[in-house]
Amino acid sequence: MSTLLAAAGSLEPAVRSFLSPTGQEIVFLLVGIAVLGAAVVSVTTKQLVHAALWLVVTLGGLAVEFLLLTAEFIAWVQVLIYLGSVVVLVLFGLMLTRAPIGRSPDADSGNRWVALAVALAAAGTLVTLVVDAFRTSWIDLSPGAGSTEATGTYLFRYWVLPFEALSVLLLAALVGAIVLSRNGKGRIPRPRPGKLRTPVRSVTAASKER
Amino acid sequence: MNLLDTLLRCVATLVVFLVLPLVVGQTEHKVMAHMQGRLGPMYAGGFHGWAQLVADGVKFAQKEDVVPSGADRRIFQLAPAVALLPYLLVLLAIPVGPGGFVGQAIDAGIFFVLAVMGIGVLGSLMAGWASANKFSLLGGLRTAAQLMSYELPMLLAAASVAMAAGTVSLPGIVDAFHWWWIPWQTIGAFVFFTAGLAELQRPPFDMPVADSEIIFGAYTEYTGLRFALFLLSEYAGIVVVSGLTTVLFLGGWHGPFSDSLGWLWTLLKTFALAFVVIWLRVTYPRLREDQLMRFAWTVLIPLALAQLALTGIIKVAIS
């Protein structure tokens, strides 16, 4: 454990000043500002699909932040899961339902002030917590501290129980989703080439009766 | 590992990225033609029409760049870049020869490669939506659905190799390769290559650009250079998927004289696989959309899981 901690950097109180930042820290801050900007635009824009695309910028920027913190594995997982799957699913859902080009004024929710209050409260809590927990401690970043090997060792040696509990939670969510999506009316007949399905036939029958 | 070294590697990758897809494209012209009993391009450049793709490029560059009036202008113009760039980034991580003959050695190579390739679909989605054309939108939707379902078997097959090698770095995997991996990982190789074909939207998985149903899918409204960029991304994709299958399942640079000729082996295997991609295009008819989905969920994923189990059992048995 102690060697791993050493690899991950020390938590000694800061001996450096905040006024002489390294290049890495400057880039980290700049990317952070870009991420914040993209996040704000993605919740304030009036165009639905643009909001989803700004979310891409936000999540991609977060991956860059992970990279700058030497957490390489986490960065690629972020790209794989959030950019490659979650945003694509969001876009897919938007396009399947309603995604007009241009502004969609009916997308404004009446709850936005409540949402803003909740978001500000959550952000305030998190910032207070992190600032209070770390105060002036300084993490020395050494290359390789967030490599696949180090992450795997942490995850499967020291945090196995939470990891397994999370996987059970995900399994429960999966089963729940399947149960919710079944409507219990039996199987829908598979479409066959060259044969009309029953609903169509009943429509034509109805029109004949008329 | 200084700045000049990094820069040189990036430039070399860019050159490869610009040359290999064109070679594959020209091969496709000729191979398809001969398989269908004709000659293919014969005039451009003189010898067997070798300059046909250069001529095509000049033609594309001369065409007017049209943006439909109802389209979302900025996203419409951005989409080709989003579709093309991921393949360039992926090419950077594919090892060609032993001893650091790779654009950039990345610690979590497999993850990087599969993650970045997944971004390419955003380009098709953006193109399909921003074109303000219902065929484009349908094409974009089909692309998204296809990629979502084929990414899973691809990941599982790649995970099987990573398990066998005990590392997720691409050069590390090729280093750990032995000849008996080929029979051991056959199912995984089949699943990976098939899912890769589906990810590229090549026949028989080209439902998203089915010309008899939805014209040319997400790319219907594109003209000129932007259309050429989409085509280029398809051919770059062939190079990337063939290269990845080579590296993961066929042992990359391993072969006779691999110390001095390793890069040649990688290239040869990659081109053999690219030939198979072209061959399949000429041979098979297009699948129907529901057949496509059923194939992914009821054939490829169970096969990939079986391969994963097999890899695990043998790995435990030999260790």
Provide an overview of this structure.
The complex is a heterodimer of chains A (210) and B (319). With 210 residues, chain A is an all-alpha fold. Chain A contains 8 helices and no strands. Chain A starts with a helix and ends with a helix. In chain B, strands 1-2 form a two-stranded antiparallel ribbon. Chain B is globular and about 65 Å long. In chain B, helix 4 packs antiparallel against helix 5. Chain B contains 12 helices and 2 strands; from the N terminus they run H-H-H-E-E-H-H-H-H-H-H-H-H-H. Chain B is mainly α and 319 residues long. Helix content of chain B is 71%, strand content 2%. The model of chain B has no long low-confidence stretch (mean pLDDT 84). The interface between A and B is medium-sized, with 27 and 33 residues. Chain A: It holds the Pfam family Oxidored_q3.
List its traits.
heterodimer; A: 210 residues; mainly alpha; Four Helix Bundle (Hemerythrin (Met), subunit A); 8 helices; globular; disordered N terminus; disordered C terminus; B: 319 residues; two-stranded antiparallel ribbon; 12 helices
